[in-house]
Amino acid sequence: VRLVGSEMCIRDRDESHKQVLGQYLSLVSDKSKIYIEGHADSLGSKGYNKALSSRRAGQVASYLKKDLHQGSRIVEYAYGESAPICKVEDNKETGCNRRVVITVKS
């Protein structure tokens, strides 16, 4: 899965990632929650970035609900630009602050 702007692109080579995610989720308890965190970098306004991170989390949540049938286990968060993992210079090269994080908790 690759994020381009506000769009999530699922490419053919991502099939293995989707397969591994599906296999992993089939191994954890049905009572476990799946937390999806949407993040953005600081290139836009704070309001735009908050909405963008919400769309990112929503697109991944939609995939998990529709394709992997995870339904009510999903909890979404939109952090906008508030939780960077790299410096602005690194983000310009790699886009490391534009991301979705999936965490499974029992």
Number of strand elements: 5
Radius of gyration: 14 Å
Mean pLDDT: 86
Provide the helix percentage.
25-40%
Structural class: alpha+beta
Rough outline: elongated
Number of helices: 3
Gap between N and C termini = 25 Å
Largest sheet: 3 strands, mixed
Characterization of the model:
A 3-stranded mixed sheet has the order 4-3-5. A two-stranded antiparallel ribbon has the order 1-2. It has helices spanning 15-27, 46-66, 88-94; strands at 2-4, 7-9, 33-39, 74-78, 99-105. It is built from 3 helices and 5 strands; from the N terminus they run E-E-H-E-H-E-H-E. It is elongated. With 106 residues, it is α+β, with helices and mostly antiparallel strands. Residues 1-12 have low confidence and may be disordered. Helices cover 39% and strands 24% of the residues.
Name its key features:
5 strands, disordered N terminus, 106 residues, alpha+beta, 39% helix
Task: Map the helices and strands.
Blueprint: E1 2-4, E2 7-9, H1 15-27, E3 33-39, H2 46-66, E4 74-78, H3 88-94, E5 99-105
Parallel strand pairs: 3-4
Antiparallel strand pairs: 1-2, 3-5
Compact summary:
The protein has 106 residues and is of the alpha+beta class. The protein has three helices and five strands.
